[in-house]
Design brief:
224 residues, three-stranded antiparallel β-sheet, 9 helices
């Protein structure tokens, strides 16, 4: 019986997988910058994250906006679904690999939803317009963000927008130079993964029966 040609047979395929971000070899480079000879000597971890997201080293104002945005984005607790899921995975006695995989997957999905909800507002802001006020605006959060920006606060348009917390964080990150959906989604996951796993690994491994509140409020189902 003759074999019918498949897609793999009828076209020419590349013969090499080309590195786009990290140059292979002993002295690896991230978007052209030597990791061990340049970045490790003179840059902090925030610069590495920003460079990974944008391909560029930030200037001082954008680096500060990025750092503040990342700190404010990181603030998730056990009440959020990704942290809850990761902690529950730990209580069930799963491996560190499984716990971190659950955390990363849940965070990626949450970030996708949040960016999708606010991206049109971010685009309008980057186009030079101010954002329509939102009912979710929290003056205390905005004040804390202004204080964190410190010397960069006067030049930050994002910090003056009367929008909800998540939208405000996305605006600050966008103002720092993250202009695409992919960059914003990745940044939220990067910001939240360390704190999410910190909460998860603080739970006692394999102690689901002792530590998880399984007696949820009673639900009564009524036929209409």
């Amino acid at each position: 019986m003759s074999r019918l040609p498949s897609l793999f047979d009828v076209r020419d395929w590349p013969t090499k997988l080309v590195a786009k971000a990290v140059t292979p070899g002993e002295n690896k480079r991230l978007f052209g910058y030597s990791i061990e000879e340049a970045l490790a000597r003179s840059c902090n971890l925030s610069v590495m994250l920003y460079l990974s997201l944008t391909g560029e080293v930030p200037d001082r104002p954008n680096l500060r906006r990025f750092e503040v945005g990342m700190w404010f984005a990181s603030a998730l607790s056990i009440e959020s679904a990704p942290v809850h899921a990761a902690a529950l995975t730990r209580m069930c006695g799963s491996t560190p690999t499984a716990i971190q995989s659950v955390a990363a997957t849940a965070l990626a999905d949450l970030s996708r939803v949040e960016v999708a909800e606010h991206f049109s507002t971010v685009q309008g802001f980057l186009g030079g317009g101010d954002c329509a006020p939102q009912d979710a605006f929290d003056g205390e959060v905005a004040a804390r963000l202004l204080a964190a920006l410190a010397d960069e606060a006067p030049s930050s348009r994002a910090s003056r927008q009367r929008v909800g917390r998540t939208c405000l964080v996305l605006l600050v990150l966008a103002e720092s130079g993250l202009a695409t959906r992919e960059q914003l989604e990745r940044a939220l996951v990067m910001a939240r993964l360390p704190i999410t796993t910190a909460e998860a690994f603080a739970a006692r491994s394999g102690r689901f029966m002792d530590d998880y509140p399984v007696h949820l409020p009673v639900v009564e189902y009524v036929e209409e």
